[in-house]
Write a structure and sequence with these properties.
Residues 132-206 are annotated as: Disordered. Residues 153-178 have a biased composition (Polar residues). By secondary structure, the protein is α+β, with helices and mostly antiparallel strands. It is globular. The strands form two sheets. A three-stranded antiparallel sheet has the order 1-3-2. Strands 5-4-6 form a three-stranded mixed sheet, with no helix packed on it. A hairpin with a 2-residue loop joins β2 (77-82) and β3. It has helices at 15-18, 22-34, 45-52, 61-73, 93-96, 115-123, 130-149, and strands at 40-42, 77-82, 85-90, 182-185, 190-193, 204-205.
């Protein structure tokens, strides 16, 4: 039996949606239809425009991006990023959709609204979502490495390496000269060695 998705009667009475442009409401309905069985969809305005507005040339991908922004601001959609991918999910999905035989989602869950699913997904080995899981874990390892060596969180992960003994990349954000790899006191005496840090991060011992 095909799975049924119906617009909840409360959709037309929603105060939040009443403040939206009618076109944004239709885009929202389309996301309910074309999202997966957990209410998730990749945030791709071009794709959503193609699915929801295939014959309406007056509606552009830019318009759809504006609709998405309004729906996120109105807390109808949640925007989240996992493993370098951009995703959306309908926040009230579980309140209005009860699918008897749902197809497992091929998109990662939202860690904010679906924390239990996210914990399971994090430890899973499902090949359908493995690319995002691997990227997310790699990103978190890079962030931990940044914090461990004191690099600002805004530094690109590509310029961060783990303490595995591997040769660090030769880039402008990493200084490896030995005269910059020490803590120095005012008296000039060398202190504990610190490897691979920026000159601005070498602290002086009073």
């Amino acid at each position: 039996m095909p799975r049924k998705r119906m617009t909840h009667p409360g959709f037309f009475e929603s105060e939040n949606l009443a403040d939206l442009d009618i076109a944004a409401m239709i885009t929202y309905q389309g996301i309910w239809v074309f999202g997966d069985d957990r209410g998730r969809i990749q945030e791709d305005a071009e794709f959503i425009k193609f699915k929801v507005w295939p014959r309406r040339k007056s509606v552009t991908a830019t318009d759809v991006a504006d609709h998405i922004e309004a729906l996120v601001d109105g807390e109808q959609l949640c925007r989240y990023k996992i493993g370098g991918g951009d995703f959306l999910h309908t926040i009230a999905w579980h309140e209005h959709q009860k699918i008897s035989h749902p197809t497992p989602s091929k998109l990662p869950p939202c860690p904010v609204h679906q924390p239990l699913e996210y914990k399971v997904w994090w430890k899973d080995d499902d090949t359908a979502t493995d690319r995002w899981r691997k990227r997310e874990k790699a990103g978190q390892r890079a962030k931990s490495a940044q914090e461990e060596i004191g690099i600002d969180s805004g530094t690109s992960p590509e310029n961060v390496w783990s303490n595995s003994g591997a040769t660090p990349p030769q880039c402008s954000s990493v200084q490896v000269r030995s005269d910059q790899a020490e803590i120095r006191s005012d008296s000039g005496e060398s202190g504990t060695e610190i490897k691979f840090v920026r000159p601005s991060q070498i602290r002086q011992i009073p």
